[in-house]
Amino acid sequence: MKIIKKTEAIHAEKSDGVSVDYYLRDEYEIHYDEQAPGTTQTWHHHEKIFETFFLIEGELTAEWKENGKVKKEIVKKGDLVETENTPHTFSNHTNQIVKYIIFKQILSGENKREILKTDKVIDE
């Protein structure tokens, strides 16, 4: 077992109002973000990375471009967002700090749901 302490994370205070702790591993990255009230992330997308976003606390406005049009939806605590390779941004339209975790992976495209559901061995 490995325990990665917060002190080992790469911390960044970004100019768009997001405070990030990056946990960069060999085959994936997880980062913990806190987004300040009234801020908007820079529009961006990923060509190879599959980004999954899980909201822990608060709510944000998700915006993304699809077929040349900007779409918008409120995401709340417990929601999971898969950004795919679409240009996207998140705005904190509230007066509270919003907390979320982002998982970044480079996926193979193989369906591994059965393994994920059943790969647990009980140790006695």
How are the SSEs placed, and which strands pair?
Layout: E1 10-13, E2 18-24, E3 28-35, E4 50-57, E5 59-66, E6 69-76, E7 80-82, E8 88-91, E9 98-105, H1 113-118
Antiparallel strand pairs: 1-2, 2-3, 3-9, 4-7, 4-9, 5-6, 5-8
Q: Element order, helices and strands?
A: EEEEEEEEEH
Q: What is the β-strand count?
A: 9
User: What would CATH call the class?
Assistant: Mainly Beta
> Major sheet: order of its strands?
1-2-3-9-4-7
CATH superfamily: Jelly Rolls
- Unreliable spans: none
Q: Helicity range of the residues?
A: under 10%
Distance between the termini: 18 Å
Number of helices: 1
What summary fits the major beta sheet?
6 strands, antiparallel
Tell me the overall shape: globular
Name the structural class: mainly beta
Strand content: over 45%
What's the structural domain tally? 1
Q: Return the CATH topology.
A: Jelly Rolls
> How many whole angstroms does the radius of gyration measure?
16 Å
**CATH architecture descriptor:** Sandwich
User: Taking all residues together, what is the mean pLDDT?
Assistant: 95
